[in-house]
């Protein structure tokens, strides 16, 4: 037993050095992954912003939906922004409502998926 201690100690030192190298590689890989994910997320947000601004600029004088003015009575002027014609829905409000609806639906889908994953 005493004769095998130097061999064990040498093997243990090798294992420790390999674990340290693995830790360095893991940390580097994690940093690269985070950087790529962050850059991709920023690029998507910039593209999304440019598309939304171009839609607002292109369709700022067009009504997205027209309906009787009585249906939109208290908020008709706000909903029709930037056209300000009663009974219409402008692109700005349309995009805001659309974003809220999509966010709610995606949250419901993610929550539903998480519940199914927990039950399995």
Describe this structure in words.
The protein has helices at about 5-60, 75-80, 90-120, and strands spanning about 65, 90. With about 120 residues, the chain is mainly α.
Enumerate how many helices there are, as a single number.
3
Radius of gyration: 29 Å
- The SS-based structural class is mainly alpha
Low-confidence stretches: none
Look at the structure and give the mean pLDDT.
88
* Main sheet properties: 2 strands, antiparallel
State the distance separating the first and last CA atoms.
49 Å
**Beta-sheet strand percentage?**
under 5%
The strand count comes to 2
State the helical fraction: over 70%
Oligomer: single chain
**What is the chain-wise order of helices and strands?**
HEHEH
Q: Globular, elongated, flat, extended or rod-shaped: what is the shape?
A: elongated
Q: Please list the strands of the largest sheet in the order they lie side by side.
A: 1-2
Compact overview of the structure:
By secondary structure, the chain is mainly alpha-helical. It is 72% helix and 3% strand.
Offer a few descriptive terms:
120 residues; mainly alpha; two-stranded antiparallel ribbon; 3 helices
Helices and strands in order, then pairings?
Elements: H1 5-58, E1 65-66, H2 76-79, E2 88-89, H3 91-119
């Amino acid at each position: 037993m005493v004769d095998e201690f130097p061999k064990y100690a040498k093997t243990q030192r090798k294992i420790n050095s390999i674990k340290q190298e693995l830790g360095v590689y893991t940390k580097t890989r994690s940093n690269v992954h985070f950087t790529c994910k962050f850059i991709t997320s920023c690029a998507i947000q910039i593209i999304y912003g440019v598309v939304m601004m171009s839609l607002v600029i292109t369709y700022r004088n067009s009504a997205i939906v027209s309906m009787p003015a009585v249906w939109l009575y208290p908020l008709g002027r706000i909903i029709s922004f930037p056209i300000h014609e009663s009974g219409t829905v402008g692109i700005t409000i349309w995009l805001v409502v659309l974003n809220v609806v999509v966010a709610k639906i995606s949250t419901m889908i993610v929550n539903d998926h998480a519940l199914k994953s927990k039950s399995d």
